[in-house]
């Protein structure tokens, strides 16, 4: 599905599909086919996990260290919640976390980033089975 934001001045998700997301920043588009962390303040790095089962507390500690006001966790093709123990660092710093499937997380990230909020999207990109 292709997304058309009105005009975002921050890193945004331009499109997404099974096994990929398209990022845009300052007129440059990039197709990402691996799990990734992106942020409204320009943060972007690979999130070293190819499946939900590979996640551990360390993946979420990295997010807490970025000190956003909110983390959007895209849990892959379907909605799955990380164990509460993994989220301890976020909760201790009073950083909000919302969990949704990755495609919903893409849409939500664009809305919140467009509002000027410091938001991080941690997107689990699972390989397309097709």
Q: What is the strand arrangement across the widest sheet?
A: 5-4-8-6-7
Task: Give the second-level CATH assignment, the architecture of the domain at 34-123.
Answer: 3-Layer(aba) Sandwich
| CATH topology label of the domain at 34-123 | Hypothetical Protein Mth938, Chain: A
Shape: globular
Total strand segments: 8
Radius of gyration: 14 Å
Q: Which structural class matches the secondary elements? A: alpha/beta
Oligomer: single chain
The portion of residues assigned to helices is: 10-25%
The level-1 CATH class of the domain at 34-123: Alpha Beta
How large a portion of the residues is in β-strands, by DSSP E?
A: 25-35%
CATH superfamily of the domain at 34-123: MTH938-like
The separation of the N and C termini measures: 17 Å
Poorly predicted runs? none
Look at the structure and give the mean pLDDT: 90
In DSSP terms (H or I, runs of 4 or more residues), the helix count works out at: 3
Sketch the major β-sheet.
5 strands, mixed
């Amino acid at each position: 599905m292709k997304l058309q934001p009105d005009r975002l001045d921050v890193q945004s998700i331009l499109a997404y599909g099974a096994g990929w997301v398209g990022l845009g920043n300052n007129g440059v588009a990039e197709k990402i086919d691996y799990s990734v962390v992106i942020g409204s303040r320009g943060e972007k790095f690979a999130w070293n996990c190819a499946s939900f089962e590979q996640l551990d507390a360390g993946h979420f500690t990295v997010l807490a260290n970025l000190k956003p006001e909110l983390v959007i966790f895209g849990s892959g093709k379907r909605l799955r919640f990380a164990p509460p123990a993994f989220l301890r660092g976020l909760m201790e710093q009073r950083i909000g976390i919302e969990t949704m499937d990755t495609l919903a997380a893409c849409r939500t990230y664009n809305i919140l980033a467009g509002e000027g909020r410091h938001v991080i999207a941690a997107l689990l990109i699972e390989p397309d089975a097709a």
